[in-house]
Structure formats: C-alpha cells, structure tokens
C-alpha cells in the first residue's frame, strides 16, 4: 500500500525532513519553551493564526490582487471557526471556495482514513445555498457556510451511517440526529462522516471495518524530526501512531484542517482521548445538556455528543448551537440554555483548582506528570487556590464502567436483527436463526464480546452481584465528585491520557478490552458522574506528539469550565501542526520557510 | 529529564517510579509492567485495578450450560476459544467490584435522578413516513417487514453449529 507523501518532484519516493534526526538533537522549540520555567507572554492562539495568514509569501508571479486573495483563501483552512466565519461575512472567502478546499484536502489526506463517507455533492449544494444567503446579506448565523464533519454513529438523512460496522453497511438513515439537524439549520456544511471504532467501542479507532485511523501528527514535521526510522522502506508504514478513540476520525479531521469542527461521542472518554492524541480541543458536555436523539447509543446513561475543535472558543460556539432541551430526547434537561461568549479570566482569587491524587495513576508518563505539575504551578502563580483532593473510588471507575457498559450494550445491540434495517443474513429457517446468523455476520469480536459479557452480568443469578453492585459503585463515584465540589473546589485539573499516542504496531498487541481499560482510566469517571470535561492540548512530548490536560467542571457549569480552559490554552501556546499536505494547499503562505522535503 | 514528582500538589509524593520515556517504545509496555511492580508505600491508594495480567484466579470457570444459555439469549456466538477466554477475563475483571463496600448505598440509574423526566403531550406531531422506513428493509411485502417463520426455538447445542458443541 503506497502511503506516498510524494515530494514536489513527484519521484514517488518518500522523503522526509530530517533537521535533527540523531538522538539528543534539539527539542521542539515550543515544548522547550513551555517546559522551561520562563514566564510566557500570552499572545493568544488567535494571534498566531492571524500572523500566519498575513505572512508575506513568495507568490508565483501572479497579480498582487489574486495572490492576496489566494493567500487569504488558502490560509483560511488553518484559522479558527470564528475567524473564518468573519471572513465569510466580509466576503474574503466564499462558502463554496472553502468547501472545495476542504474537500480537496480530504482527498490528499485520504491515507489518514479519517472519513468513511465524504458527502461531496450535498456539501457543495449546502455551500452554494450558504453563498446565496451571504450574498443577500442574510447568513443564518456564525456557523453558516462552515465545513463540519460528523462521527459516523450519528444519523444523517440520506447519507450512509455505518458505525464502522458490517451490520449497518449500506444503511441510509431516514432522519437527522437532532445535533446534526441543528447544525444544518444554522447553515453548516456537512462534509462527511468520520471513522471510529466499531459502534464506538474502543480507545484507538483501530477496530472499525473500514480500517484504523492514522494520527495526522504521524506525518507532521514535529514528529518526523524526532523519529529515527529503522530503515528507509519502513519509514512511513510502521511509524504512524494511532489517533486514540473512539472518535479518532473526527479528531484527525479537525487536526488535519479538513474541517473546522467535528462531532464525536463521549461515553468513557471517546472524545477527549483522541483530542489529546491529536492535539485538538475535545469537549464532553454535561450529561443531559445536548440531545442524544439520533446518536446510535452505546451506554444510554453515559453517552453524550462530543465537540472537537481547534480552540476552546470554537467549542463554545458549537456548544451554543447544540445545547438545549430536545422534546425527542427525554434525558435532556428542561432548563433554558443561554449560549455565551467566554469571558476573560481575571479574578483568580475566587478560583479553586483541585488536583485529584488518584489520577496520578501507575503508568502515567513522566512527561505528562511534569506538564500536570507545571499547569498547577501556572494557576498558583496566577493567584488561584490549588489544592490536592481525593476521589477515593477512582480506581473502581473503570471496573464499574466495564460492567455497566457491557450490560447496556447487551441491551442496545439487541435492536440489530436485520429485519427492519441493516445487514440481513440469508438464513431462512426461523426468525431466531436468522437473527443469530445476521448478528454473527454483522458484529466484530469486540462488539460480540461485550454483548456476551453484558448478558452474563444481567443473568438472574448475577444481576445483584454485578449489575446492581456496579450501580451502587457508580453512586459512590458520583458522590466523590459531589463531596469535592462541595468543599469549594471549582475545577479539577488532571491529565487526559497516560502517555502520548502509541505506535499502531504496538497498540494492536493487546486486545480491545485491555486497551480500553488502560486508556479510559483518567477520562471515564467524568462520564460516570455526568460531569462536563474538556481536553486542552498542552505541549508536545519528546516524540513530537501532542499531550493534553483535562479540566473537569461542575454539572452544567460549562461557562466556568470553558473560561478556565480558554485562559489555560492562551498560556500554553500549543504549536500548530506542520503538515506537508496542508502547506501545499495553503500555497504562498509558508514558502519562506525552507523545508527539505520540497526538493 | 525534569523532576517528575507532582511534589507540592500531591502529598502521596511516593508515586510509582517513572519509567524512562524512550522514543519508539510504546508506553503501554511499561503499563503492562506497572501492575505487577510492587509499590508498598502507597499500594492501597495507588494500585490500579489490574487490567488483565495478574487478576485473581476465576473462582470457577463458566460452565458450558451457561455459555450455551448466553449464546441463546444474546443471539451471538462465541466463535472460538478466544471468545470464551474473553468472557472469562471480563468476569475476572468485574470481580474486583466486590472489594468495594456498598452497604447502605442505593443503586444509581441515572445522574439526572433528582429531576423529573420530561413527558410531552400525547399529540401526534410527526409520522406518516412508512415509505422511508421501509426503504432500509431488505425483505418486505407491501407495508410489511417479512420475517422467516417464528416460534421455532434455536436448535439445541448438539444440533447447532457452534464452537461450544465440541466442549461438552
């Protein structure tokens, strides 16, 4: 399989930039800047992107006006949602142009396998409609014309929804999930459906039937500079890292600039985990804030739609568009939700940050520990109160999740029998045997394993021992959080993952359940308790891969959570990923930076 | 390599010995080592529930009758010995729940238990979408989904084509 990142000369051979390939070479400048305890002058993430957009490029001898327009349009892919929305409003770029660029970039980054379905025609149509609205001066809102991707377990009318499973291959949803409908109603352009673990079960985005998703950072200059391939031919093929899961496709799509925001789902960390590995912001809202109608359920009592964006501000924009009561989802709360602009955090004296000691889990990499420590220092130096807290039942959270998840999965997967939709086996002997054959053909090992485990825990003789017991432990876990928040802590600061992204070849050496148990440890408890949580990309690891930190807030206090997260994001100045493909698309902007791969 | 202890913030400063972060060695290898490395100083606080390597031995293996029963209930098959192993490991993993004392604790169904569930008015607001719904069904006749004959139980273990057949 040719994963060809072709050089400009089109020789077809893989050539990568090797500025400091030897071990002990200079570390990434941003990681060094952050890890060195120097006061960082906050410049703001937005400023960095604005600078990138305005940088003079070499151009190609065309007229200055066209060059300026091309540059402006080209660099648009790397701006934030708010900025591109402003550009659309000003007419500096049109929705169709934006859509076409995104679609072209999706094609060039196909090797990432982030998308299962690219809805090219409908996207262009939506972009045209949006353009008409802008021409009339009547855009529907800030999301009008913005390209968005959606995880493939959300129903999208007229577009195949597969959940990366054979069971739903060819299934064309007859309706839109509420969150998808809300986005479309505001004029967003739906580019396509992103890849995931089958039925959102997994923590690597490696177990779907359409293959694993590759982390865009595997192909970044930052990672390549740090990696020493074993041999030239093994270069790209064995060196790539996973995205994390299960919303890996959505995270990869946002990280590689093919869309401005993506929807994921979060049941045990499925939005925050890939967000940490792909260096994007992953927000898990409070359970009950955003409608789950149309989200193919995994665990009804813990699922929430997740939001993946490149900066915290964009996440707030998406949240504002999606949150609110839905009559079609009775688990959404009825309180009015007021969309908000994130205020600047100025008064730290009233802010109390909690550091849960149990999150210092065995296996936590020393780099992440150091970053966590530095982050705590950051808040302390700003004047906030930083205290150690205890969530004593943290270590049972993953076991509890295991039981509750498999039990609810056993119930939720029972609807897939081939009769009304989805794959249907040719077996005709009896209804039951048809169901059994359909399910044997449609589900992969992971799904079947969870269904069988779930049924075991729900057997009459096991019900009290396992299922009810797990529900009781869940209450203990939720109470832990209540106690901590009641003691005056506003926000909890924890790592999101135990380490940076693993090599695919290493990741698949353990089975799905073991990996999920390992990777979900730090993110799972927030789902147990239904609390909002967000991953903010913090710095690059020694391998040049993103590492993020997690903030957990009180129920329905997303405004406070995002305020703190936005301030933190501004302090850490997480570097922009340097991808050859995107450079090529955004031609004219970065050409002044010499890169060895452009020969 | 910088100091790694989250010193001022965690009183249990004797965290697990950090493993050296070598490039290309997936951290998961070290993770596998971690549960078995004894760390007596803060064992009771920091020990992670074992993720599958050193779990307490299963009290008794799941009997073939139960496995057969599960296959019939779930209508999915174990496929091979790996499937059965997976179940055994899952049960072992879940057994750790019994370490927790839950006397007097009520089970929690939903985090929104202190709110009233929303019930809407009993008015028909949408429907009439028979055609759309039938589109996705493979076998249908007029407005009916067609199923093979019902009320026929799955064949017994001896007659079924299942991996479990040989193990009785």
Automatic annotation (TrEMBL), chain A:
Domain Amidase positions: 102-562
CC per GO annotation: glutamyl-tRNA(Gln) amidotransferase complex; mitochondrion
UniProt cross-references to InterPro entries, sorted A to Z: Amidase, Amidase_dom, AS_sf, GatA
Swiss-Prot/TrEMBL catalytic activity: L-glutamyl-tRNA(Gln) + L-glutamine + ATP + H2O = L-glutaminyl-tRNA(Gln) + L-glutamate + ADP + phosphate + H(+)
Any one Gene Ontology molecular-function term assigned to this protein's record: glutaminyl-tRNA synthase (glutamine-hydrolyzing) activity
Spans annotated as Disordered: 1-25, 52-72
Gene3D superfamilies on file: Amidase signature (AS) domain
Pfam families: Amidase (PF01425)
Residue positions of the active site: 151, 246, 270
Enzyme Commission (EC) number: 6.3.5.7
UniProt keyword Nucleotide-binding present: yes
HAMAP family xref list: GatA
Protein family: Belongs to the amidase family. GatA subfamily.
Subunit structure: Subunit of the heterotrimeric GatCAB amidotransferase (AdT) complex, composed of A (QRSL1), B (GATB) and C (GATC) subunits.
Protein name as catalogued: Glutamyl-tRNA(Gln) amidotransferase subunit A, mitochondrial
Lineage start: Eukaryota, Metazoa, Chordata, Craniata, Vertebrata
GN (gene name): QRSL1
